[in-house]
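Our example pasted here:


***
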Amino acid sequence: MMGARPSRGVFLVEALVSLAILGIVLTLGASFLARRRALERDRLDRERAVRAIAGEWIYLRTSFRNDVYPKDRRPFVGPGAFVDALDARNPFLRVKSTDVDGLYLIHLEIGYGEKMAKHIVQEGYVFRGVGPPP
């Protein structure tokens, strides 16, 4: 009779230990999933910013541009609705002259991520091109 007495509360202790382990695993799993979701949101936002910069490069390089002239800092020069949609990202470009007539050094910068704390910066050259015939 004395040998059966210690096993009385063992099942309850085992159940509590199992629940504690399960709680720890679920807490770690939930934090992992939340972090993964935040990283995915940041990645998608960065892709949108990269596409916006690519669109600005296309706009600057496709034809003659009267709006490409040396300027220290100004908003993107793409189509109005396109640029208006980017306002929260605080996009800007710098245009600098080079030694070659009509060739300009372009510096593009756009924010992304939470509170637009991260930035994508690209530099390249744009040839202003020949103006339309008179």
In short: The chain has one domain: 2-127. The first strand starts at residue 71 and ends at 74. The mean pLDDT is 84.
